[in-house]
Amino acid sequence: MKSRIPSGLPWVLPALLILVTLSIYPMIYSVKVSITDASGAFTLANFIRLFQDRLFGAAAVQTTVLTLVALVIEFVLGLALAVLIDSLARARSVFRAGLLVPMLLPPVVAAVAWRLIYNPQFGVLNGTLRRIGVNTAPLTWTSGENSALLSVILVDVWEWTPFLFLLLSAGLQAIPPEPIEAARIDGAGAWRIFRDVTLPLLKPTVLLALLLRAMDLVRIFDQIFILTQGGPGTATETVSLYIYRTAFRFSNFGYAAAMSFVLLAATIVFSRGLMRLMRAR
Amino acid sequence: MKTAFRYILACATLLIALAPVYWLVTISLKREVDQFTYPPEWIGFTTTFQHYASAFRNGSFAHYFTNSVLLAALSTLAALVFGVPAAYGLARFEWPGRWSENIGNWILSTRMLPPIVTIVPLFLMLREARLLNSLFGLAIVYTAFNLPFVVWMMRGFFDEVPREIEEAAMLDGETRVGALLRIVLPLVKPGLAATAVFCLVVAWNEFLFALILTQTESAMTLPVGIASRVTQYEIRWGEMSAAGVVAMLPVLVFATAAQKYLVRGLSLGAVKG
After folding, report:
1. In this complex, do A260 and B116 lie within 8 Å of one another by their Cβ atoms?
2. Is residue B252 assigned to a domain?
3. In A, residues 218-257, which contact B (CB 8 Å cutoff)?
4. Residues B195, B258: contact at Cβ < 8 Å?
């Protein structure tokens, strides 16, 4: 005889209650905050404002650019690095451990290090470049209107390429040697083997790594907060930073909540893909 | 020849990965007059520990450090206490239909919420509960943040233990809880340790929640303490770098200890590595 209540429920219930209180309830609360005005009446003003707000538009564009550019560079470099380290006969674990350091640091500490490096006057980057004869006057890095976003991307590439490297390298090692052997016996060159045998077999890991990284990139906050605070002007303002400013500098919680739903929508797109992938395994 | 080129390339990449960290360390060890000289001094400078002393002995960084340690320990412990039984329940009990899978997926999806989405309501809720600027309040938030991770990871580890082992123990008169504590948990100990390390690192590195939910000196964590110094007008780079070095050491030690499970943890259990 089976009772209707699943016998495992008491084990799971405490965790579920915590998550409902601290994840789901805040979401509902957030909806409420975003659709009521100061007097508590229903309003869609916050959502209408989204479409007219140039700053939000700029932040959305910058977040998208940053996500896509960083993702592509990190993927290409991460894959190249995974193949490179995989091909070494010795000291593989030493290289692997060293290469992982950037992503393990507290993001705040990594960003502090890069502020020291980027400073146009006394930073070590321009100092070293000047030393080898480069004219560093135009190299303003994070303080230049045009170079700031690229400089932020560069830090992200430094910090998170190791993540793609690590996952892809695990993926490479999980590939059985037989199909590659077979292709080699059939006379295929190294590049053909990589493109037609290795890459297709690596595809699930590639997708997983890209989705995980993309989800983190669209919410990027810590590094930019330390490096540029969204500046100069709004050159490196991202959606997370703009929401932060709106809520905690200007105390406009309703509008901040409304904006956060746009970010949530983007995340849901990525996470649905991710869930499907994980279930397929 | 080709092999030599590969090693040179690998070494160059390693250099790029480590140089910024090394530079931070040198700034923390240099006298103020040597910090920003031209040309930059990578080696052979006079070393001093004055910045460590002024940050940690005379300054408030020792206090932030204690806060970070307490917070990481407390929230990790809580996440394990609630997460391990939930993972066990999902892995071992009969669930109707696709309940187990759906609950698991739903739990994981809460982890994917961008923090900035929940932070506005959490800030308002904690303010109402008078838990702003309190380590306890922040620990509750971190627990909820790490809980889905614990459930997801531990379920994977429990799935790898054959059911027959605890069924045999229960036939011998062991209770369900006893079987979990005395038979199953010892078998998944490495996995449990790795999961705990991940929670510790996440709590230790976390910045956004801490920045918004604790704004007083008394409850500040190490990352927030460092950040509050960066954004000031005059930055004392020596102290900041010293604090940064101290903040990164535990993470590097812990991550090295759990290296075997790094891939699994970072991919939320999807790549068994």
Report:
1. yes
2. yes
3. 218-219, 221-222, 225-226, 229, 239-240, 243-244, 247-248, 253, 256-257
4. no
Say if residue B11 is in the same domain as residue B116.
no
Q: How many distinct structural domains can be found in chain B?
A: 2
Looking at the structure, tell me whether residues B4 and B94 fall in a common domain: no
How do the domains of chain A map onto residue ranges? Answer: 54-240
- The answer to whether residue B54 sits within a structural domain is no
Q: CB–CB of B248 and A105 under 8 A?
A: yes
Cis omega (within 30 of 0) for bond into A204: no
Q: Could you report the predicted ipTM of this complex, rounded to two decimals?
A: 0.91
Are B202 and B233 part of one and the same domain? yes
Confidence (pLDDT) at A275: 74
- Mean pLDDT lowest for which of A175-179, A273-277, B16-20, B251-255? A273-277
CA–CA separation, A2 and A72 (whole Å): 53
Q: How far B263 CA lies from chain A's nearest CA (Å)? A: 6
The residue segments making up the domain with residue B167 are: 61-266
Which tokens belong to A196? 């037609």
Q: Which helix (H) or strand (E) holds A244?
A: helix A239-248
pTM above 0.90, yes or no: yes
Domain containing residue B102: CATH number: 1.10.3720.10
Q: Residue B98 corresponds to which amino acid?
A: R
| Separation in Å, CA of A54 to nearest CA in chain B | 20
* Pair B258, B133 in one domain: yes
Residue type, A40: G
Report the helix count and the strand count for chain A, using DSSP H and E: 14, 0
Fold of A54-240: MetI-like fold (1.10.3720)
Residues B90 and B96 sit within 8 Å (Cβ to Cβ) = no
